[in-house]
Amino acid sequence: MTIPPPDTNHPAGPVEAGAPADLLAAESQAEELKMRDVEGLSQGQIVRRRFFRHRGAVVAMIVLGAVILLAFTSVGFGNWTGWWKHTPLQTGNVTGTGAQPTLSLPTWLGGDGFVWGDHPFGRDESGRDVFARVMKGTQTSLIVMFIVGIVSTVIGVIVGALAGYFGGRLDRFLMRVTDLVITIPVLVLGAVLGALAAGKNSAFLLAIFLGLASWTTLARLVRGDFLTLREREFVDAARVAGASSRRIIFKHMLPNSIGVIIVNQTLLMSTAILLETALSFVGLGITYPNISLGQLINQYQEAFATRPWLFWWPGLFIVVIALCVNFIGDGLRDAFDPRQRRIPSQRALRRAERKAAARAESAAAADSTVGASGKETT
Amino acid sequence: MLRFISRRLGMGALILLISSFLMYLLVNVSIRPMEDLEQSTARNKEQLIADRIEQLDLNTNVVIRYFKWLGNFFTGDFGVAWRSSQSVNDQLGSAMISTLQLVSAAAVLAIFLGVAVGIISALRQYTTFDYLITFLSFLLYSLPAFWVAVLLKRWGALRFNDFLRDPALTALAIAGISAALGIVWMLALGGALKRRLINFVGAGTVTALVLFYLQATNWWTSPKIDPVLIAVLGSGVAVATTLLSTGLRNRRSLGTAFSAVALGLALYVPMQYLLYYVQMNWWIITGLALVALASGAGLGRLWGGPDWRQSARTGAITAFGVAALIFLDQVMSYWGQYLAHPTISNRPIATVGDRTPNLVQSVQEADKFWLGTIDQYTHLLLPTVALMLISFASYTRYARSSMLEVLNQDYIRTARAKGLTERTVIMRHGFRNSLIPLATIVPLDIVALFGGAIITEQVFGRPGMGQMFIKSLHNAEIEPIMAYLMVTALLAVLANIIADLIYAALDPRIRVTA
Amino acid sequence: MTAAHAPVADTPPSEHVLEVKDLTVEFFVDGQWLPAAIDVSYDVKPGEILAIVGESGSGKTQSSMSLVGLLPPNGRARGQALLDGQDLFAMSKGRLRHVRGKDIAVIFQEPMTALNPVYTIGFQIIETIRTHFPMGPKEARERALELLRMVDIPEPERRIDSYPHELSGGQRQRAMIAQALACDPRLLIADEPTTALDVTVQAEILSLMRDLRQRIDSGIILITHDMGVVADMADTVLVMKDGKVVERGPVRQVFYDPQHPYTQRLLASVPHLGRPDTDATEQTDGPAAPATPAATDTSVREPARTSTGSLQAAPIESDLVLSARGIDIVYEGRKKGTDFKAVSGADLDIARGEVVGLVGESGSGKTTVGRAIVGLLPVKTGSLEICGISVVGADAQTTQPLRSKVGIVFQDPGSSLNPRFPIGESIGEPLFLHRGLRGAELSGRVETLLDQVELPKAMRNRYPHELSGGQRQRVGIARALALEPELLVADEPTSALDVSVQAKVLELFRELQREHGFACVFISHDLAVVEMLSDRIAVMHHGKIVEVGTAQQVVSAPKDSYTRRLLAAVPLPNPDLQQERRQERDRLLAEAAKHND
C-alpha cells in the first residue's frame, strides 16, 4: 500500500458531535487560523484571552475593583480606620440646607466644577454622613455577596458532583432534597433564615444562611454537566487507567465544568446582593447598628421628597455592583462557552468590506497618484 | 397520563409533608415570641412570660407541636394568629386573591412581552437593537426590586398624577416621544438604510399623530375608544394576527380576521345597552369573552376552505382582541366618574393598598363593578410594573438564547431548503420549538414571583400573602407563616407538574409515563 | 429567456439541468475572507448523478449549499450557477425561495436532526407540497402517501402520522427523500445521504436512490466522502481538495485512471474489502476487472494463512489472553423489567499477539463487548477470563492487576482526551497511577511513547484542542500502550477520521502491533478496515456473535446469512466490481425473500 506523505496542512478535524453542520466547513477552513490563534495556550489562557476581548466585562471589572477599594479604604474595616474623616454612626447638627450633598460634578459633566466637600453625599436627618454610611453598607453587601457565593458553590458543587457522578439511588436522593429546597422561594427561605440570623445580628451569619438557601441551581447544573461528562470517553479512559472516583471527580471532571460553575456563581452573586439588600429592606437581614444598603433605603424612603440623595446613593451603589457582576458574568460566559464561534455581524462584514475596498483603493490611488493629482489641478 | 399525574401528585404531597416539617422546625427557631416580654419592664414580667408560654404551648416539644399543627392542617384549619387572635383561614382567603391578582398580572405581562422582545432580539442578533435589549435586561436584572418600587411610588405616581391634573404635552415632548419610538421601531425592524428611514419616519409620525389626537380629544381626562378607534385598532390586530399566524397571502384568514372586526363594530351599540343595563360581574365578562372567541372561530369556519382551522384560530384571536377593546372602552367611560369621586379627587394612580376603601360602597349598584375594576387596575398598575421587571428581563434572555439555539438547528436549514417563507420558518419551525425550553422555566419563575411579591406588597402596602408573611415573621406568629409556606410550596409543586405536562404537550419526544 | 419550469419532456436530453461556472464560496472568519471553494465549474444533465468527493474541509458541501442560498450568515458565493438557464445567484430572495424545494431539493446527512422533531413526517411532507402547489390538505396527504410508498416505507398509512423519533434511521432518511421528491425537483442535492446509516441500510437507501433516478429523471448531485458509494452510484465524479476541483471525469476514468496525485492518493487510502486473490476468484465469470491502484497496492499481510480448514482451529488454551464463554451483558434500567440485554451468550477466544476484528452494525453489541473487556461494564453471567483472571462477579481488588494489562483506544479522538490536560499528562496518567512514575522519569517515558506514535516530543505540552484528529488519535494510542498491555481494545479508532488520515493511523497501528506483540480486539463497523488488520474476525448481530473465523474465510466464504448480507452491502470502491456486488446482493435478498415465504 502506498502511504501518502503526511500533509501537515490537512485540516483533519473530526466533526464535533452536535455542532450544526453548516458551520463546520467554515470552521475547518478556519482551523489553521484558529490553531495559530491558540498555539501553546492552555484552556485557562484561552479563556482569559477571550474574556479580555469582552469590553463590557473588562470595564465592569475595573469599576467593581474601584468600588471595592473605595468601600474598604474609606471608612476602614475592623479595627483599622480608613482615610475618611466621618464615621457612619457619628451624628451632628443639621440646619437648613446644611444636609445637602457637597459633591459637585466637574464642569465637563455639566456640574459647577469638581468639589468633593465635607459631605459629598450629604447628611441625613440626624446629621450622619451619608457617604460614610453608604460605604459601610457597600462593605456589608460585598461581604455578604462573596460569602454567599463561596458557601453555595461548595454545597452546590458537592451535591451536583456526587449526584451526577454516582447516579442511581444517591442521585435520586440528592435531587429530591434539591426539589425540597426549591419548593420554597429563595427570598422566603432567606427571610426565615434572615430572621434567625437577625437574632445574632451578624452579616457573616446571614451570608452563610443565604448561601445555604441558594445552592440549588448550581447543584442541578453541575449534575447535568457531570451526566454529560460521565459519557465522555476521557473519563472512561481515566477509569480504565485505574484512577479512583475521587481523582476522576476532582481531577478530570470538575475542571471541565469550571465554566458552568464560574458563570453561574457570578450571576448568583449579583442576585445575592439583591437578596441581602431586599431582606434588609424588609427588616429581616442586617439591622441596626449594622448598616446595609437595603436597610438605608428602607430607612430613608420617607425622606424621598425632602432629601432625595438619601435614597439615590445607596440604590446607585447596589445597581452599580450588581450590574458590574452581571457584566463580568456575561464576559465569563462568552469566554467559557465552547460553542462560541464568533459569527461576524452584518455590520462587521460591511466594515471589513469597506476596509478592504479602502485598502484596494488606496493602493490603486498610490499607483496613480500622479494622474489623479494631475486631474485635480486642471 | 392519569397515572403520571397521580404519581407526581403523590410525590408532591410527600415533598410538601417533609418540607412542612423542616420549615416548622426552622421557623420555630427563627421567631422569638418572647422577645418583647424579655425586654419589658412590667412588674408582672414573670407572670406574663408564663402566660405566653402557656398560650403558645412552648413547653411542649416542637415535634409534638408540629404534629398538632399538622392534625389541624389536615382538617383544613390553619390555626389562629395569636397576637391578633385572627383566624389564619380568614386572613389567607383575602390575601391570596390580592397576591394572585398581582402575580398573575405580572407573570402574564412578563411572559408575553419578554418572549416577544427576546425573539425579536434573537432574530436581530448582533444589531443595535439586540445590544440595547441585552443591556436593558442586564440593567433590569441589577435593579433592586424594592428600590424601583419605592421610586415608582414616590416619584412615578406623584408625577403621573400631577400630569393628569393638567394633561398637556408640549410640542417638544411630543416630538421627543415620537422620535424615541421611531428609533425603537427602526432598530427593531431593521433592514436597509432606506427601509430604516421609512420605518423611523412612519413610526414617529404615527406616534405624533396619536399623541396629538389624544391631546385634542382631551383623552387623558375622558379616555374612550370610540367605534372609529375600535375599527382602526381592530384592523391592526387583524393584520398582525394574520401576519403572524398564517401570513397575509392567506386571503380566507385575512377575511376572517376582518369580518371579526366588522362583527365587533356591528355589535358595538347593542353591547353598550347590554353592558349598561345588565349588572356585570366577572362571570358574565368571562362568558362574553368565550362567546367572542367562539364567534371568531365560527367566522373562520364560515369562510371555509381546506384550512379553515387556521382561519378559525386567527378569527378567535382577533375577535378576542376586539372584544377586549369594547370592554376597555366601557371601563374608560367610567373614568370621569372615578376621577371625580371624593376618595380619589383626581389622583387616580394609587400607591397604597389594593383598593380604595369606601369607594365601591359609596356608589350606585350599577356602577359598582366598573368603578371597582378601574380601582383595582389603578392599584395594580405600579406593583405589577415593579414586580414584572426582573421577570421580563429573564424571559427576554431565555427567549433570545432559546431562539438562537433553535435557529442553529439543522431542521431550520431543512425548512429553508424546502422553500418555506421566512415567516413559516420562524414561526412554525423556530418559535414553536423554542417554546419547549421556555416551558420549563415558567413555573420556577412564577415561584420566584411569589417571593418577589413580598417586597412589592411591602412597599405598596397591599394586604397580600407576602405582607402577611413578613408581618407574622415580625410578630413571631408561626401559624400564618406556615400557612404562607404551605401555599407557596403547594403552588410550586403544582407549577412543576403543569410544566412537565406542557413540556410533554409541546415535545412529542417526551412521553408522560410514570 | 425560456420558462424556468419547462416540463421535463420539452427539454432535450442533452441539455444541462445545472451549469456551474467559476463558483467561489468564501467565509468571513476572524476579520478576513477565507475561501471554501475556488473557481468550481461543473454541469449536471437530467438523470445524471454527479458525485462530489472530498475529505472534510474540501468545500464539497458548501459549494453545493451556496446554490440554494443556504450558506451560513458569514458566507458568500460568487460566480454563476444556471438552473435551466436561469442564474441562481442573480435571483431575488423571493424567486430563489420558489426554486428551493420545488426545482432544487436537498437531502441532508443526518435525518434525525434535519427533520423537525415536533411535527409528524406527514406534516412536513405536506407542508412542502402545499408551499409550492395550490393543493388542499386532503390531496396533499394523498400525494404524501404516494411519495412514502414510492420510497418503500413500510405501512405508509400509519407512518405518515409518525414523528421522526418514532422511525428507524433508514426510515427517517426515506421520509427525508420523500420530502425532497415532493415537488418533482429538477435537481436533487444529496449531502452525505447515507453517512449516518449502517452499511446494510445504506445499501437499501442507495438502491432506492438508483431506482428513483430512473423514474424521476432529475439531475442528482451526490456529496460524499465514501469512494464505495461513489463507485456504486455516480456517473461523473468531481474530486475536490482544499476548495479546488482537482479532478473531474466519468466514474470509470477517475477510478481506473486517476490523473491527479491527490485522487491517486485518496484511492490508495481507501481500505479495500477482499484481498487481491479473492477478487480474482470472484471475478472469474464477470468482466475482467481493470487493475486498480487500490487492488494492486493492498499489501499482503502475514501471518501466513494456509487453508481455511486448519485456521478454524481455536488457539491453544494456555496461550489465551481472553476467553469468554456464554457471557451476557445487561444494561440495568431504572426500574425492574426495563433491563436491556446488549450482549447474550457470546463466546470469544483471543490468543497472545492475535488481532481479532469485531464487526457489526450499530446496536449489535460490539462496543458493549469492548467496554466489558476493559472493565467499564460488569459481566454478570457466563465466564470471562482475561489474562488468567476471572472477572465475572469479581471485586475491584481482584481486577486491579488487569488495569495495567488491558488498554483501550476510543472512537472519538475529540472526546477521549481530557481537554484540560496537556497531552503529556494524559499519556502519563496510567504510568503515574500504576508505576508511580514522576518527574524526569515520567516525562522520559512519555517522550518515548510520543516517539513511538510518530509525534514530536515537544507536543507533550500541547492541549488536545491544538491537535488535529489524527494526531489526537495517535495520542490515544500512546496512552493505551503506556503500560505495555497484553490486550488492547480498539473501539472504532479510525471511524471519525478522514480516509487518508485513517490510512496513516492504521498503518501506525499495524506497525506498533507487530513491534509490541499485544493481542487486540479491533472493533469496527467497517469490514474493509477490519479485514486489513485482523487475523480472525467475529461478526456480531443483535447482541450475538453469529460467526467467527479467519479474516480470509469470513470475507471470502461467509457461512452465516447475516455475514453474507453484511458483506454484500459494503460498497466496493470500484465501479465494475460494485456492480457485480450489487447483483449478488439482489440475488441474496431475493433468496432470503423466497426463504421467508
Features:
heterotrimer, A: 378 residues, mainly alpha, MetI-like fold, 15 helices, flat, disordered N terminus, disordered C terminus, C: 597 residues, alpha/beta, six-stranded mixed beta sheet, 24 helices, globular
Bin the strand percentage of chain C: 15-25%
Q: If interface size is counted as residues with C-beta under 8 Å from the partner's C-beta, which chains form the largest one?
A: A-C, 56 and 80 residues
Mean pLDDT of chain C, to the nearest integer, reads 83
Q: What is the beta-strand fraction of chain B? A: under 5%
Gyration radius over CA of chain C: 26 Å
Please state how the strands of the largest beta sheet of chain B are arranged side by side.
Answer: 1-2
Mean of residue pLDDT values of chain B = 88
* Percent range of helical residues of chain C: 25-40%
Architecture overview:
The complex is a heterotrimer of chains A (378), B (514) and C (597). With 378 residues, chain A is an all-alpha fold. In chain A, 66% of the residues lie in helices and 0% in strands. Chain A has 15 helices and no strands. Chain A has helices at residues 21-38, 43-53, 55-74, 130-166, 168-182, 186-200, 203-213, 216-231, 233-240, 245-253, 258-281, 293-300, 309-336, 346-367, 369-377. In chain A, α4 packs parallel to α13 (309-336). Chain A is flat. The N and C termini of chain A lie far apart (73 Å). Chain B is an all-alpha fold. Chain B folds into two domains: 2-92 and 463-506, no CATH class; 101-438, no CATH class. Chain B contains 20 helices and two strands. In chain B, a hairpin with a 4-residue loop joins β1 and β2. By secondary structure, chain C is α/β, with parallel strands linked by helices. Chain C is 39% helix and 22% strand. Chain C contains 24 helices and 20 strands. The longest helix of chain C is centred in the C-terminal third of the chain and has 22 residues, at 575-596. Chain C is globular. The chains are: A mainly alpha (378), B mainly alpha (514), C alpha/beta (597). Chains A and B meet through α5, α6, α11, α12 and α13 of A and α1, α6, α7, α18 and α19 of B.
